[in-house]
Amino acid sequence: MDSRYHTGSENSLEEMEEDSETQSLGLDQDGKLPIFLSLKELTLLKRTPLRNKNIKAIVSSKWMVIPDVIKKYLGWRVCESSKETGNSWDIQWMDHSASLDEIRNLQPYQKINRFPETKHLGRKNLLMKYLKKLKVYLQDDYTFFPETWILPLEYDELKTHYHDKLAVEPNRKPIYIIKPENGSCGEGIFLTDDITTLQSANNCVVQEYLSEPLLIDGLKFDLRIYVLIKSISPLKIFIYREGMARFATQKYVKPSKENLNDIYMHLTNYAVNKTNPEFQFFQEEENQDGHKRSFTWILKYLKDSGQEPESVFKNICDVIIKTIAAFQPHLEHTYKTCQPREENSEICFELLGFDIILDKNYKPWVLEVNRFSSLNTDSKLDKTLKEHLLLDLFTLLNVNGMDKKPMESNKAYIPSKPAKLAREEIIKLREEINEWEEQNSGGFLKIYPPKKEWGMSNYSKVLAISSFMWDGLVGVNNRRVFSKSTLSKPTLTSTKIASTTVNFNKGAKLSTNSSKEGISKFPIGSKKAKSTISQ
Ligand code: ADP
């Protein structure tokens, strides 16, 4: 048995303490942990969190599980604001975004759960804008998001798509799903087969509806996968080995004019489906038949039905890396602007919730990326998963409460001007960080830099093109050198880049006319209220 598995109860969370039986787990060929772990296996991992009452954590979050995990399992002091701590705090968790000034003023010993400008990832319109841009150059790589149009700017392109589809299948109108550009929890989403009603729609994205999702028990579902950007330069991405599957509560039939309004069939949001009296909570690990199940239950289901869950898992990792790669140059640039001398971008981290749907061919499609993922713990599945997720996250970050006195008094660490480290020092520091990650990742799996043996695509090319696009966007001369093999078709020209640059900040409120024929508006909650929590 691998020593990283827990066999007793000394470092366990509550549920583990109740159930301390020894569990034999399969290791991969290298004797390492398997790429995915069931909820049960996750709870049995051996953990050695360093308890330290000198660490000060500022938590301004509605999710009580954050201070609970910190206090109970790490013994850190939890404060509500820096009024209590001055600048001597070690880590900060906030539900809102961090301003550039906030990031600029951070000390090298501090960590915060936000990168500057990750809002670009979290908004549906901006996410799709970036992905679409890269698709222009990487047509074969960026096929993992549904065709999307941002209204009102791209209405003409949408119209062309509609007519092209109709020309091929005159008797089948294409179906589109319309979403407020900054919505969440399924709020304000509706399906339509009549695009003329979208002519005056503002501030929304329209997507081709993926009409052939993978079904389990006849139900549509999507996956919530937790992803950590641990540093932006060098880029380090970790996936949590366990996640969730959220099920629709009404049997799926292909969309037609008659069923476009059936929210319990077409939307998989927990916030939507829990309002259906048919909704069933997750019961037991072994026998998951509720409308929220674990991600690894889905993988096991795939295995039992003759599929290869490893390849589905790897494909999911692939689309996650490519999504983040589209933003990396922007995030790196902003980070470096705020912290010009910080060498490892270890100050900022961000936990993202990827919403991914599998189609009937097991292909993953990225629907959206949440920066404000729900950390509610209203079911046993949620509680067990999120407690372990947070504990593993805090451990992986290596918040060690190092002595801040010498740093504050040392000129070298005046926030805006920390000393530039020598190259050898940087290499040594990075090695130490890598070693820590190797030993203390818990349920996290590092997916970027990618493992060679996974045979995944050439991300350096993706990142190079992403950088090139970003430079073009901000008007920086192209600093990077491209070899002929790095850049293939189409040729990168400034004209091309300019033509894919669109300003999405125009427009007023989402306005669509639900009473018009062919349009179905889902009355989910108040359309005015803009909850940013995604469940
Ligand atoms: P929200 O942030 O409001 O949850 P999402 O983009 O996640 O918005 O969409 C909500 C739900 O709608 C998804 O969980 C999924 O079930 C369904 N959905 C979204 N986009 C598509 C699509 N292009 N094709 C099929 N179903 C979709």
In words, what does this structure look like?
- The chain is of the alpha+beta class and about 525 residues long.
- The chain has 17 helices and 17 strands.
- The strands form three sheets. Strands 9, 10, 11, 12, 13, 14, 15 and 16 form an eight-stranded antiparallel sheet that branches.
- Helix 3 (about 65-75) crosses helix 13 and helix 10 (about 295-305) crosses helix 11.
- The chain is globular and about 70 Å long.
- The chain binds adenosine-5'-diphosphate.
- Adenosine-5'-diphosphate binds near residues 185, 207, 267 and 367.
Key attributes of the depicted protein:
single chain, 535 residues, alpha+beta, eight-stranded antiparallel beta sheet, five-stranded antiparallel beta sheet, binds adenosine-5'-diphosphate
In total, the number of strands is 17
Structural class: alpha+beta
From the alpha carbons, calculate the radius of gyration and give it in angstroms: 24 Å
In terms of DSSP E residues, the strand content is 15-25%
Percent of residues in helical segments?
25-40%
Helix segment tally: 17
Taken from the alpha-carbon principal axes, the silhouette is globular
In this entry the ligands are: adenosine-5'-diphosphate
Poorly predicted runs = 1-12, 15-27, 406-417, 477-532
Q: What value does the average pLDDT take?
A: 80
What does the main sheet amount to?
8 strands, antiparallel
Termini Cα gap: 36 Å
Short description:
With 535 residues, the chain is α+β, with helices and mostly antiparallel strands. It is 31% helix and 16% strand.
